[in-house]
Design brief:
Order of helices and strands of chain A: HHHHHHHHHHHH
Low-confidence stretches of chain C: none
Number of domains of chain C: 2
Structural class of chain C: alpha/beta
Distance between the termini of chain C: 39 Å
Chains: A mainly alpha (273), B mainly alpha (266), C alpha/beta (325)
Mean pLDDT of chain C: 86
CATH class of the largest domain in chain C: Alpha Beta
Shape of chain A: globular
Number of strands of chain A: 0
Order of helices and strands of chain C: EEEHEHEHHHEHEHEEHEEEHEH
Strand content of chain C: 25-35%
Strand content of chain A: under 5%
Number of strands of chain C: 13
Largest sheet of chain A: none
Largest sheet of chain C: 6 strands, mixed
Number of helices of chain A: 12
Mean pLDDT of chain A: 90
CATH superfamily of the largest domain in chain C: P-loop containing nucleotide triphosphate hydrolases
Largest interface: A-B, 35 and 33 residues
Shape of chain C: globular
Oligomer: heterotrimer
Number of domains of chain A: 1
CATH topology of the largest domain in chain C: Rossmann fold
Distance between the termini of chain A: 31 Å
Helix content of chain C: 25-40%
Radius of gyration of chain C: 24 Å
Strand order of the largest sheet of chain C: 5-6-7-3-8-9
Number of helices of chain C: 10
Helix content of chain A: over 70%
């Protein structure tokens, strides 16, 4: 029986399982729409906070509301996409605890794909929607000399940002294999990350920015390229062309996450639960 | 065994139970610290722009942040306390067993949740608070009275927080599904308790409304008491009033629910 | 050239590192040999029982056979494939039923799980329809297809799991405690189904269980595992012999009498007019009863079977004694 290359098997399995969940959640149209709206409202709270702040001040760290909205829209939409695609991975710890992880290993599909697609929640479109709306607002109101490069950066930030957050989800899941109760650590990086990226880098201390740019390069989700688009200087000295480095960072993140996942799975198969 | 000793034992049980979740507690400490750092920097920028926003100076704003992170788990601001279990028990019908026990459901839940709160204050919340005080300029009072006043405010805050969540949990008797109410609680909890922005900094009518709601008793009041921003007795009166209202409503709802026990099989 | 067994284990080991807290900060590391050098071969079409007490290593063996766990040592092949290296390739050819948890999607209707498996296992449409119809009929799943798995009773879910494991025509079926928690009728249904499956489809079946009845009704060959070691591998009848297990004849006499004397049996207990006699399990009780009835005033009697735990425990004790002597 011929098998497709592993990544295609994975995509196929992902599609099958996610498709089943999508059909299942659409079965009750009204209820589905309500949950999407609910998700939109809950995730939109973050922007409500920013609006509240700007009701009291005119700028934050020197950045205006449309500029902060630009950062927010990029971060929230990218995170929303990764949350939609891989967000369910944060229940891996619970699955191992109740023993249902084993059933995944018995099926002829890559485990990562099965875990990623499990409980695919189409309602997470809510987060993507509000992020997109804010991004749209920002694009209309920011004062930018648009060049081809700058225009290209916007979709690039969304795609690479989603990949970076996605890699965090996968690495977090691998970590949960070792420490099943520590799902919250993952949240600190993913939710904490998307929250901090909503604010301008100028707001944070130099050391902190250094950490987020070089040690755990979340800054390449939106901070670095967006600063370039807006024509604002980045708080740190970066080599020229750094604003286009996001794809490289995303690739590195994904590669590392892949390694972490393989190590985690190998460890599980060696030690049981 | 007197009622007092019974509930003390239940509280101790709650404390012990959460003390066993070592990995989860550590993870929680980490999360609270990270979010605290992000918030602090944001507030520093905010207060740079408006140095007396909400009547606070920068150091006080920073203190506010770390107190908020400290109390996040203690007061189950986004949920995660006893109400999760209770909602599930109501949904599956197991609650029938609890209602016919000789112990009172509300007191039992309160005792258990109090144990949890205590652990999450001492075992989780204190650490980010200390971390914050080491690395950021905070406005901490040096006199014992202020800290004692804070403790009283915290006790009242725990009561208010419990009251809110108890009502939310009991609503499942009528709604049958807890997800909607849990989500609503999450939104209201984060927003109205002042975790994202001090309630004093909310503009206009929105600010007036939010400062009158019970959630204000959770972080805003204790913070103001600690930093001497408000007369402690005023704060206690506010907190106690809400506590009485919520707990009484809880008792009424409990009687109604007991009469209406609908056992839903799984 | 010897024919390769379908399932082949050659000195397979599984060692776990267990850490125990012995003090405030101290930890003790211990090695647990869950599976300790086990070797056996199962030919195509066999139906084999794999029994032993709790913690003996049954589930661990199944997990290694299905690719969930990787062995610490030894050689393990199923249909020539190494499960730890080619998990997904093997997965197409095996079916697994876990007694304690389900392979179905918990929140979805039963039929949705089957549809997913149809696509995931790439089952040809005609074959899928045929298998599904057959399983639905034989396992009486018709009314349950639209019910979410979460709402099924244990017996119903078990039948659903068995169907799920067979939709893709696996060459071997592993059942890990399949009748646990089932009522008598469900157990009988499941056993009948498995018997037919093995007879008609030639599916190799490896069944781990606590229930001796399962073995007696289904398997001609049984393997006994205890403390990670294979204690016995052969026909069921031989098990009683090997374990030198005894059955108990409980005799109610008319009145209290001195212990019954009869060849091939010995009295182990006397309580008033009731006497307990032990005799070899491989012997029939009939001649013994006839002899006693002829010479003693017998009012009533009953026969007690040896339980598997006692048989195995005795076997293990004897092994230990042999090792020492």
């Amino acid at each position: 029986m011929g098998e497709l290359p592993r990544w295609r098997e994975g995509l196929r399995a992902y599609g099958l399982i996610a498709g089943m969940w999508i059909r299942s959640s659409m079965a009750y149209r009204m209820s589905f729409v309500i949950t999407v709206i609910g998700n939109l409202l809950v995730t939109g709270l973050d922007f409500a906070t920013i609006l509240l702040m700007f009701s009291q001040v005119h700028s934050l760290g020197g950045w205006s509301l449309p500029e902060v909205a630009f950062l927010y829209g990029l971060s929230a939409t990218a995170f929303g996409i990764s949350d939609l695609v891989l967000g369910s991975m944060d229940v891996l710890g619970a699955r191992i605890r109740d023993g249902s992880f084993d059933t995944l290993l018995v099926r002829p599909a890559p485990v990562l794909a099965q875990i990623g697609a499990d409980r695919f929640a189409l309602r997470r479109l809510g987060r993507i929607t509000q992020g997109g709306l804010v991004l749209g607002y920002a694009l209309l109101h920011i004062d930018v000399n648009w060049t081809a490069g700058k225009l290209l950066l916007v979709p690039m930030m969304l795609v690479c940002g989603a990949a970076i957050f996605g890699a965090l989800f996968v690495a977090g899941a691998a970590f949960q294999i070792l420490a099943q109760d520590a799902a919250e650590v993952q949240n600190a990086f993913t939710y904490g990350g998307t929250t901090l990226l909503q604010y301008p880098p100028a707001v944070f201390g130099k050391d902190f920015v250094r950490g987020v740019t070089f040690m755990l390069p979340l800054a390449f989700v939106n901070w670095v390229p967006a600063s370039y688009v807006l024509g604002r200087p980045y708080p740190l000295d970066l080599p020229p062309g750094a604003e286009f480095a996001s794809p490289l960072v995303a690739l590195a993140f994904c590669a590392l996450a892949g390694l972490a996942w393989r190590a985690g799975l190998k460890s599980y198969r060696s030690t049981g639960s | 065994m007197g009622a007092g000793r019974l509930y003390a034992a239940v509280a101790a049980g709650g404390f012990r139970r959460y003390a066993t979740y070592r990995a989860a507690t550590l993870a929680g400490v980490f999360t609270n610290t990270v979010f605290g750092v992000v918030l602090v920097y944001t507030y520093l920028a905010l207060w740079d722009e408006r140095p007396h926003l909400g009547g606070y100076d920068q150091a006080q704003a920073v203190t506010y942040v770390w107190l908020g992170q400290c109390l996040y788990a203690t007061l189950a601001i986004q949920g995660g306390g006893f109400e999760k279990d209770l909602m599930e028990r109501i949904r599956t019908g197991d609650i029938a067993v609890d209602l016919y026990r000789p112990a009172d459901l509300q007191l039992w839940s309160l005792a258990s949740d109090f144990g949890r709160s205590l652990f999450q204050l001492l075992g989780r919340g204190v650490i980010p608070f200390v971390f914050g005080s080491l690395f950021f300029p905070m406005a901490l009072p040096t006199d014992v009275t202020s800290w004692a006043a804070l403790l009283v405010a915290l006790l009242l805050a725990i009561l208010v927080s419990f009251g809110i969540r108890y009502l939310a949990a009991l609503s499942v008797f009528w709604l049958m599904d807890g997800t909607g109410i849990s989500q609503a609680m999450m939104i209201l909890g984060i927003f109205c308790s002042g975790m994202v922005l001090p309630l004093n900094a909310f503009p206009g009518v929105l600010g007036d409304v939010v400062r009158a709601l019970p959630w204000a008793a959770q972080i805003q009041m204790p913070a103001d008491v600690l930093m001497g921003k408000t007369d402690p007795l005023h704060a206690y009166a506010f907190q106690a009033a809400w506590a009485v209202v919520l707990l009484t409503a809880g008792r009424l709802m409990q009687s109604a629910a007991t009469r209406r026990v609908v056992v839903q099989g799984g | 050239m010897t024919e390769q067994a379908f399932i082949e284990l050659d000195r397979v080991e599984k060692v776990f590192d267990v850490r125990k807290k012995t003090g405030f900060m101290k930890r003790e590391r211990r090695q647990v040999r869950a599976v300790d050098s086990i070797s056996f071969g199962v030919a195509r079409g066999e139906m084999v029982g794999y029994i032993g007490p709790n913690g003996a290593g049954k589930s661990t063996t199944i997990k290694m056979l299905t690719g969930i766990l990787t062995p610490s040592g030894g050689r393990l092949r199923v249909a020539g494939i190494d499960p730890s290296r080619e998990r997904t390739r093997l997965a197409h050819r095996i079916g697994v039923v876990f007694g304690q948890r389900t392979t179905l999607w918990w929140d979805l209707p039963l039929i949705d799980s089957y549809k997913l498996m149809h696509r995931m296992y790439r089952i040809p449409d005609a074959r899928y329809a045929e298998n599904l119809d057959r399983c639905v009929e034989l396992l009486e799943l018709g009314a349950l297809l639209d019910v979410p798995v979460r709402q099924l009773s244990l017996g119903q879910r078990m039948r659903g799991d068995i169907a799920a494991a067979l939709l893709h025509d696996p060459e071997v079926l592993y059942l890990d405690e399949p009748t646990i928690g089932l009522d008598v009728i469900s157990k009988a249904k499941v056993r009948e189904f498995l018997r037919d499956l093995n007879a008609e489809q030639g599916t190799t079946v490896l069944l781990t269980t606590h229930d001796l009845q399962d073995i007696e009704q289904l398997c001609s060959r049984v393997m006994v595992i205890d403390h990670g070691r294979l204690m016995y591998d052969g026909p069921l009848a031989g098990l009683h012999e090997a374990g030198e297990s005894e059955r108990t004849l409980v005799v109610d006499l008319e009145r209290e009498l001195p212990p019954i004397e009869v060849p091939d049996a010995r009295v182990v207990k006397v309580e008033g007019p009731r006497q307990w006699l032990a005799f070899p399990a491989s012997e029939s009780a009939a001649p013994l009863v006839a002899r006693i009835a002829a010479e003693y005033p017998m009012v009533d009697l009953s026969v007690r079977e040896p339980d598997i735990e006692a048989v195995i425990a005795k076997m293990y004790v004897e092994q230990a004694e042999k090792a020492v002597s």
